[in-house]
Design goal:
Region (Disordered) (chain A): 1-25
Protein name (chain A): O-acetylhomoserine sulfhydrylase
Largest sheet of chain B: 5 strands, parallel
Largest sheet of chain A: 7 strands, mixed
Number of helices of chain A: 17
Radius of gyration of chain A: 22 Å
Distance between the termini of chain B: 21 Å
Shape of chain B: globular
Structural class of chain A: alpha/beta
Family (chain A): Belongs to the trans-sulfuration enzymes family.
CATH architecture of chain B: 3-Layer(aba) Sandwich
Number of domains of chain B: 1
Number of domains of chain A: 2
Number of helices of chain B: 6
Distance between the termini of chain A: 65 Å
CATH architecture of the largest domain in chain A: 3-Layer(aba) Sandwich
CATH superfamily of chain B: NAD(P)-binding Rossmann-like Domain
Cofactor (chain A): pyridoxal 5'-phosphate
GO cellular component, one term (chain A): cytoplasm
Oligomer: heterodimer
Strand order of the largest sheet of chain B: 2-1-5-6-7
Helix content of chain A: 25-40%
Radius of gyration of chain B: 16 Å
CATH class of chain B: Alpha Beta
Helix content of chain B: 25-40%
């Protein structure tokens, strides 16, 4: 009998979850506990020495979080995953395994603004440098490779304009450079794009967005593709060299193709501490069960709204990869044929003032700094998140004065269109 | 047998059916992977025999080291080889001289010798290469899921509570089986380029 491969929706409901061994509870219980008793001194020593599978302390692992980890690993097609407190925490933990002071990552210029800040300021203080490259010009990644390069970082669908990245082309650059490709898959979710199938070695998410999906719980996750050989040279000593924290264990030698996820857990999360609350893990798991249904609705609504805006007299331009004329439409049809996601930008003929007016006149869209909620969201970057930048810098970062960003929810599309129409006319 | 991607049912039938395992290259040093695997398999109820000529006179979890497979002196179901790929063939040749021969040759994570595998299979033995029996047991029983590992299995039945010395159910519904996993493709590419 050959093993049968279940579909995405089956995995979204079942992967990682099994009726509780003690109570038979069918929903995943919230193991709201800091710590777990040991069977005896030998069991404790085995767990601390990484010789046995089991739970010690919720900063290192928790049974509710473990269900979430296995589920996202299964949906992404990875070998293992590690859930952490936020998407930012995921990026911190990943890069801590890869970089020493003086090392570099190459990052796509088109990223979530929070990631640009984290890389530019916080990581610089650790001595981790970032070289920016343009995802619309693959050669710019090749040119940025130096002997200090340790990883390449991109978003599958990039903030803020929902542009689609040519993952396979950048994966080829990473392979040639001998470094892992890290893909932030937050805006696509594995329902739309599975970066590992296109050559990603590590996938990270802000679970806060479409995976959790309801705007109620922060979370982040790291997925190990199991594809990168960390020991082929001495570039990644956290994985290839004996670890003094664990009496000389070599992580890759011991854990094989899920070594990176283990390193993130036992060297990163254990020592840096950004653990995910089991309650948040439960909320996010519940969200993931409906991911395929929600994501399709998000995409279908977004396409309808983008089509409406593209013909509206007050609108000068719409950036949505799902529109036939869009510059990313070919990449969207290759990488995300089910839909182009639900986050995109458009420009108003009336400039800055029109942007401010639109946001204040909307009645259904919520004005806030998040994406990937059941509710439709709007933000005018020039007057909010990017207000500290001068006009030239605003334009360069995709937050020109006339630009408005939407995150389309799962309401009825007719109501969303009516709300935008009345606000644009007001 | 496709040694690039094993069907879960193949691994499952081996781990469900073997009772005694001789571990060649077992180490008494408690940070070595062979020590972890030996201890885990012993705690899951397998009859483990440590084989390492450098440690004769010592014990591993109460089991005395023997110098060679021939010194075991009783039938063994499986030989788990914790040696580099270049040291596999002599062990397989020695195993094939045993009477009765073992049923399974298992080469540890990172170890692969296709010629040795072919020889063992020609003699009717089952062969697994570049896998760890501890990881596979943990994966198929889902015990390894505590570490966030994708077990590539599903079950709607209540899980047994894992305790030391207890055989766990490996008979969950598998998906993937290895053939679609990016990690296995990467391992195959690595083999082809080296």
């Amino acid at each position: 009998m050959t093993d049968r491969l279940p579909g995405f929706s089956t995995l979204a409901v079942h992967a990682g979850a099994q009726p509780d061994p003690t109570t038979g509870a069918r929903a995943t219980p919230i193991y709201q506990t800091t710590s777990f008793v040991f069977n005896d001194a030998d069991h404790a020593a085995s767990l601390f020495g990484l010789q046995a599978f089991g739970n010690i302390y919720t900063r290192i692992g928790n049974p509710t979080n473990a269900v979430l980890e296995e589920r996202v690993a299964a949906l992404e097609g990875g070998t293992a995953a590690l859930a952490v407190a936020s998407g930012h925490a995921a990026q911190l933990v990943v890069l801590q395994q890869l970089l020493k002071p003086g090392d570099e990552i190459i990052a796509a210029r088109k990223l979530y603004g929070g990631s640009i800040n984290q890389f530019t300021h916080a990581f610089k203080a650790f001595g981790w440098n970032v070289a920016w490259a343009d995802p619309d010009e693959i050669e710019s990644f090749e040119r940025a490779v130096t002997p200090h390069t340790k990883a390449i970082f991109i978003e599958s669908i990039a903030n803020p304009a929902g542009s689609i990245t040519d993952i396979e082309a950048i994966a080829a650059v990473a392979r040639k450079a001998g470094v892992p490709l890290i893909v932030d898959n937050t805006l696509a979710s594995p329902y739309l794009i599975k970066p590992i199938d296109h050559g990603a070695d590590i996938v990270v998410h802000s679970l806060t967005k479409f995976l959790g999906g309801h705007g109620n719980s922060l979370g982040g996750i790291i997925v190990d593709a199991g594809t990168f050989d960390w020991s082929k040279d001495n570039k990644y000593p956290m994985l290839s060299e004996p670890r003094p924290e664990y009496h000389g264990i070599r992580i890759q030698e011991t854990f094989g193709n899920f070594a990176f996820a283990i390193a993130c857990r036992v060297l990163g999360l254990r020592d840096l501490g950004p653990a995910l609350s089991p309650f948040n893990a439960f909320m996010i798991l519940t969200g993931i069960e409906t991911l395929p249904l929600r994501m399709q609705k998000h995409c279908d609504n977004a396409k309808a709204v983008a089509e409406f805006l593209s013909t509206h007299p007050a609108v000068s331009a719409v950036n949505y990869a799902g529109l036939p004329g869009d510059r990313y439409n070919a990449l969207q049809r290759k990488y995300a044929p089910k839909g182009a996601g639900a986050v995109f930008t458009f420009s108003l003929k009336g400039g800055y003032d029109a942007g401010v007016n639109l946001v204040s006149n909307l009645k259904l869209f919520s004005h806030l700094a998040n994406v990937g909620d059941t509710r439709s969201l709007v933000i005018h970057p020039a007057s909010t998140t990017h207000s500290q930048l001068d006009d030239a810098a605003k334009v360069k970062s995709g937050a020109a004065p006339e630009v408005v960003r939407l995150s389309i929810g799962i309401e009825d599309k007719e109501d969303l269109i009516a709300d935008l129409d009345q606000a644009l006319r007001a | 047998m496709n040694h690039d991607a094993y069907d879960d049912n193949y691994i499952r039938s081996i781990l469900n059916n073997v009772k005694s395992i001789a571990m060649v290259g077992a180490s008494p040093v408690n940070v070595r992977p062979s020590y972890f695997a030996f201890k885990y398999l012993a705690q899951r109820g397998y009859d483990m025999i440590p084989v390492n000529p450098g440690h004769v006179g010592k014990e591993l979890m109460g089991k005395p080291f023997v110098a060679s497979l021939a010194d075991i002196g009783r039938p063994i179901d499986m030989i788990d080889i914790f040696r580099n790929s270049s040291h596999i063939m002599p062990v397989v040749e020695e195993a094939l001289k045993l009477s009765p021969p073992p049923k399974v040759i298992w080469m540890q994570l990172g170890a692969r010798d296709d010629a040795a595998a072919e020889k063992a299979e020609a003699a009717g033995l089952k062969v697994v290469m570049n896998r760890c029996p501890k990881i596979e047991y943990g994966r198929l029983s889902s015990e390894i899921s505590w570490m966030g590992v994708n077990s590539r299995t599903l079950s709607s039945k209540r899980a047994p509570i894992p305790t030391q010395g207890m055989r766990l159910s490996l008979n969950r519904t598998s998906f993937g089986g290895g053939q679609t996993a990016a990690s296995d493709r990467a391992a195959k590419n690595k083999t082809e380029t080296t």
